[in-house]
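Structure first, sequence second, as always.
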């Protein structure tokens, strides 16, 4: 059983436009190109053909006005046998409590935040309000970590910032995407390995220059704090699976990474 903790898809009617604008944002990184047409149906086809049994959908509210629609899309996917959608909050939201209540009522257990897309550093106090609420209501929070091609000059969420968030919110289940920091593996080893913070493994197969450091992170980080993920459509799921399978990890640690840790966060039976 494999659960992919980080994928993206969009409502069918919006997928062509969303993919066109995301592709433009990613143009600075030649390694990143899409493997689906952006729809849920195409994501499911690709993921199932790679041997993935369930996928978390990381929806993101990139502005406060979109927040309700983004969460309604997540709620429309809830209860699906394949997808586990996440909600999202925007730091300027005036309806965080009611949005979290709506998500909770639909059985959604987590939210996704993307500091680069909302133009705020992860250390900004506006994020702390979201983290406090999530901590209080038992939501886990997935946050983009490290470089994003939309903001190549300024990394909005560094490994050191994640470590500081965890200190301020010790009861929060915090997931740092892309192994704790895309293109920031050395800082992850310094600040995050061995902490309570979950790391998702997405985009590892896209980072040949950091392969040794990423393998070291897999071996040295807590077995109960690693989550297999692909970032579909932005990576090839089969290559992401192979990266974990070829890292020299014990069968027991792989089982935790591919399935058990995610099942626990998602409250799957
Ligand atoms: Zn992503």
């Amino acid at each position: 059983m494999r659960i992919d903790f980080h994928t993206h898809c969009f409502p069918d009617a919006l997928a062509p436009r969303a993919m066109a604008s995301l592709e433009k944002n990613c143009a600075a990184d030649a390694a990143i190109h899409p493997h689906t047409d952006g729809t849920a149906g195409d994501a499911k086809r690709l993921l199932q053909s790679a041997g993935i049994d369930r996928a978390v959908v990381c929806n993101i509210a990139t502005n406060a006005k979109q927040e309700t629609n983004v969460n309604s899309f997540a709620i429309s996917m809830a209860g699906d046998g394949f997808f586990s959608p996440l909600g999202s909050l925007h730091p300027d939201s005036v309806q965080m409590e009611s949005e979290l209540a709506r998500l909770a009522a639909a059985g959604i257990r987590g939210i996704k935040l993307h500091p680069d897309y909302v133009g705020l550093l992860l250390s900004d106090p506006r994020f702390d309000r979201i983290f406090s609420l999530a901590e209080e209501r038992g939501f886990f929070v997935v946050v983009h970590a490290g470089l994003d091609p939309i903001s190549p000059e300024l990394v909005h969420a560094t490994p050191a910032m994640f470590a500081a968030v965890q200190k301020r919110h010790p009861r929060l289940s915090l997931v740092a995407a892309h192994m704790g920091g895309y293109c920031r593996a050395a800082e992850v080893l310094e600040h995050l390995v061995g902490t309570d913070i979950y790391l998702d493994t997405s985009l590892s197969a896209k980072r040949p220059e950091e392969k040794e450091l990423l393998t070291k992170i897999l071996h040295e980080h807590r077995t109960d704090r690693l989550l297999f993920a692909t970032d579909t459509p932005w990576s090839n799921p089969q290559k992401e699976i192979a990266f974990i399978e070829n890292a020299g990890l014990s069968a027991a640690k792989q089982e935790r990474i591919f399935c058990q840790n995610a099942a626990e966060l998602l409250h799957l039976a």
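Margin note: The chain has a mean pLDDT of 95.
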